[in-house]
Batch of 2 targets.
Target 1
Amino acid sequence: MDVDITALAKLARLEVSEGELKRLETEIPAILHFVETIQGASTGKETNAPALHNVMRADENPHESGKYTKTLLDAAPAREGNRVAVKQVVSRNKKA
């Protein structure tokens, strides 16, 4: 199996030193060969997944909309109007 480690590193946007490159040139093909071996192994079990079906249950005792809103908002550490305020965890800035 011929693997271009330099091209893989470039695609993954990784900086790879010459020493790492030499080591990876032997390790990655060995890893890929091992994965092929595992994929070819017979487990003795059926490999087809069962048919999917809807596992949602019916909401038998729904409560009125907004019934707990005030209680939840009062328990929140911070709020903005009728919403719970949280710190932003995902940046919206796009890098070019």
Target 2
Amino acid sequence: MNTTIIFTVTTDLSYDQRMIRICTSLANAGYDVLLVGRKLNASIPLTTQPFKQKRINCLFEKGKLFYAEYNIRLFFYLLFKKMDCIGAIDLDTILPCYFISRIKKTKRVYDAHELFCEMKEIVTRPGIYKIWKKIEGFTAPKFPHGYTVNQPIANEFKKMYGVDYAVIRNIALLKEIFPVEKKEKFILYQGAVNEGRSFETLIPAFKNINSKLIICGDGNFMLQAKQLVEDNNLQDKVIFKGKIKPDELTAITQQAYIGITLFDDKGLSNYYSLANRFFDYLHAGIPQLCVNYPVYADINSKLPIALLVDDISATNLAAQLNNLITNEVLYHELQQNCLKLRQTLNWQQEEIKLIQFYKNIFG
């Protein structure tokens, strides 16, 4: 009988490329994997994967009531499932995973994609921050097995809770790409449309950029982002595509001319971030405008694939994007570096570390 691993998320499984990659790798390595997420009113049908999937229905879709309801429903669902290991993906499902692992005496793993409590939407709300920090302080030290996306975040967990977490980066799968005719030089933002992603300055910047901004994703800043477009009369230049299925998103990314990876400096999570989109642009072979924070700067220092910025004001973003659009020598250099670096920075390499991590846990 195969070893069973159950992972828990609060995301809609259809769009969670990170978990699709992780679960596929472990399933292909011989583990019996189940990914548990939530079902939204707008959820599309699940596609067949090499691992099992389960969506939990909730009455609430956001806010405190959602988190409370989902965690309770998740706990009782897990209570009747057989497992050898339970994996909490980020802090928002960690409580039921901890209690289930204690009740069933199973192994438990914490996959910390970010410093959850240090995200802008958490750290700028003292009451919310206090609640999540208590949850983290109670659970994280009790998860000796874990991994995160870069060494600075692993160092923070060691400093805060004395746990030694592995580093497994969420890099795109290396696939063959073919030259794509770029009919227009549009700029792409893909990923969560959340607080702290610099939309307050990025969107107004397009008043002075001769290009369109395509936004693929959804999140807690969507209403504000759309209002910014309206306030700046940019309805013809900033296009919201909503959530896009992974295969379709890959095609759109390859057609883009420039990618965007920006964060403001409100919260340590942003400063130490390593966004999925950073690697998605790399693997599509497109240069990007990226914030000059430590992990991005470290990767870019080895082989420049991005134009890094310290100043995320609308004026500077417009100037830097216009430079990347018009400076063909710089663009070509970054583009060629992307095609080189993707050969060594890819999921096939990270997958080796992931599989070894679970081999070590199960002996």
